[in-house]
Amino acid sequence: MISSIRLQSFARSMITRRTLATAAGIPQNLTEKIVQKYAVGLAPGKKVQSGDYVSVQPSHCMTHDNSWPVATKFMGLGATRVKDTNQVVLTLDHDVQNKSEKNLEKYRNIENFAKKQGLDFYPAGRGIGHQIMVEEGYAFPYNLTVASDSHSNTYGGVGCLGTPIVRTDAASVWATGQTWWQVPPVAKVELQGKLPAGASGKDVIVALCGIFNNDEVLNHAIEFVGDGLEHLSVDERLTIANMTTEWGALSGLFPVDNVLINWYKNRLLVLPQPHPRVNAETVEAFQKAQIHADVDAKYAKKLTLDLSTVSPIVSGPNSVKVSTSLAELSAKNIPIQKAYLVSCTNSRLSDIEAAAKVIKGRKVADGVEFYVGAASSVVQKDAEKNGAWKTLLEAGAIPLPAGCGPCIGLGAGLLKDGEVGISATNRNFKGRMGSRDALAYLASPEVVAASAVLGKIGFPEEIDGKAPANAGGIKHSIEYPAADASAAPAEVSAPETSSGSILEGFPEVIEGELVLCDADNINTDAIYPGKYTYEDDVPKEKMAQVCMENYDPDFGSKTHAGDVIISGFNFGTGSSREQAATCILARGIQLVVAGSFGNIFSRNSINNALLTLEIPALINMLREKYGENKDVTQRTGWFIKWDVKSSTVTVTDGQNGPVVLTQKVGELGKNLQEIIVKGGLEGWVKAQL
User: Fold this and answer.
1) Which of 44, 228, 234, 244 could serve as 249's disulfide partner, Cβ 3.0–4.6 Å?
2) What is the pLDDT at residue 20?
3) pLDDT in tens, 174-224
4) 463, 498, 532: which is the final residue of a domain?
């Protein structure tokens, strides 16, 4: 456990590093400064900058229900002892409603592993791992913490640089204490003004996802700034940071300011004393550290949002990149069958209280099921104490245990064919919360509660027969650095290249027919359905069968081994599940080409030996050719040939037909080739050990 002495030492060292960075004439933003602290093996005097590949030793690494697959990988590496037992935290939260002997055995295995290794462990029912990481002080200001879950961005709400890793990375952290990260380009997001009555932090992030929905922040780190921050509570910051994942970012970092310090001080009044990580000494250390971006720090872009123009807004259906004002949706009288107040996004105490205020003295509409689950047992206890929990249950809400559940398509209350649901969660991907033939919307806790009472998507004011004000336009802007005013999203540097050399065992040529999956933002739920994610013994044949079924149920009949998938932009956005890469491999597909990739999918691809190429020109050419064809998956008759040695891609119309595209691509460095030859990062680490 991290002691207050260690935290104060950390704060002093951060101040020293800040001074050194400025003195060296190399400005750093806040993200770079935090990475600087946790980077290992840097050359003397090296200052971390965006684009750098670094080895990092995170303060903490959290795994949840995937802890047993991680443990299996860990033991498969030949490792016997966790390198740093203070670093690892295990929580059980995703499939807590599953009381099957198979799942309970897995949970026992995880708990026994934790006891044997001396690791901090939180059993099923204690709460969602991300909430625990914040409540228990594992994620703290100016800290770098990772988790094998895509919503570790949440930690940015308390000034912690939280970013996701995948299962193989987690096993490596357990064995070595370290993992790798490429420092992304950093975007500054300025929030101005104050939210009007009725709008919340959820509306802010839903608005950002809907307004800036063309990959403006894809694979960026985000730093929130602006005078609007003083009006956003820590709970609202946690919600916004949580959903920077859905926006496409790798992290969403809020500053350590008076709002946050006062939040910690208020927590000291209710926490059991002494607490090993959150106490008066640690809070004083956070306050004294005062780490800020240098005034001349570099940012890839600056986005601005005027909070005073944000009204209640709804995401969907079935996409976080589509946002519509609540006023517009309410007028359409869209009936709902299910409502959800669950997840790591909006199930904290303030969220439950807000929903209870709306629903107090009323009943859930006939034909509607309203599911509620607290983010943690601590939150539920507090909600029970102040009466908010009772209010929800008296209205007809259906309680769920503190945990994930329907957000990922597990447990009770999933959407059925043709149903419409509105949820205070973070993802409404097709098929994620149940049937792929259902419609899912996202909104704030207040709107979810109101909709449960109204039986349709609507405002809290409508319950009393009042007409809410129409929404105006949301003021926003985006700026790029003056030196590149028309710039597209910033690119980071490539890894060490190999000068065209090919390692023994690595194919010199990779080729196959292109199969077009014509959509942007194809998410990991579309690639590998969430309902299979925590079944740890799914055979390869089954993985191949369900590959892409939420995207296209006919994908399996249209493709075969040796094909190459070609898709749009931000392919693989969403969760950290490795099966999104391994199910593609299970179908015998060795290469995916896209306009761009979600970083977490790229990371999984490297770690599991699935090759990827970004060729925006190619997807644009195919879209022009097949623009009138409505098939979501189609064989193109075009063949791609990747000459790895010359770093050249050639595309022909027909296997031996005329050339339609020739393009140079980045050289595949020896370090990445080694990982692929070893069958992925797990095999590579095992060879190193």
Assistant:
1) 244
2) 39
3) 999 998 888 999 999 999 999 999 999 999 999 999 999 999 999 999 999
4) 463
CB atoms within 10 A of CB 307: 24
3-state secondary structure of 180: strand
Query: For the domain that residue 63 is a member of, what is the CATH number?
Result: 3.30.499.10
- pTM to 2 decimal places: 0.84
User: How many residues in the chain?
Assistant: 689
Q: Which domain holds residue 605?
A: 509-688
Check the CA dihedral 652-656-657-658 and report its sign. Answer: positive
Together in a domain, 191 and 335: no
Look at residue 334 in the predicted model and tell me its pLDDT. Answer: 98
Across the chain, mean pLDDT equals 90
CB 424 within 8 A of CB 340: yes
Which phi and psi (to 5°) does residue 251 adopt?
-160, 160
Collect all residues with Cβ–Cβ distance below 8 Å to 674 and sequence separation of at least 6.
Answer: 503, 684
Alpha-carbon span 210 to 324, nearest angstrom: 8
DSSP codes of every residue in 189-253 = EEEES-PPTT--HHHHHHHHHHHS-SSTTTT-EEEEESGGGGGS-HHHHHHHHHTHHHHT-SEEE
Radius of gyration of the CA atoms of the chain, in A: 24
- What's the rounded Cα separation, in Å, for the pair 167 and 311? 39
Pairwise CA distance, residues 379 & 377, whole Å: 5
Give rounded-to-5 percent helix, strand, coil for the chain.
Answer: 35, 20, 45
Token digits for 639? Answer: 């063949």
Convert 47-61 into a string of H (helix), E (strand) and C (coil). Answer: CCCCCCEEEECCCEE
CA-to-CA separations, 146 to 1, 61, 576, in angstroms, rounded: 16, 5, 12
What are 308-336's pLDDT values in tens digits? 999 999 999 999 999 999 999 999 999 99
Examine the fold and report which residue of 444, 463, 482 is the final residue of a domain before the chain moves on.
463
Distance CA 618, CA 636 (A): 12
* Domain-located, residue 494: no
**Do 518 and 623 form a contact (C-beta atoms < 8 A)?**
yes
Whole-number Å distance between alpha carbons of 139 and 60:
8
pLDDT of residue 494: 34
Burial 651-677 (b: 16+ CB within 10 A, else e): bbeeeeeeebbeeebebbbbebbbbbb
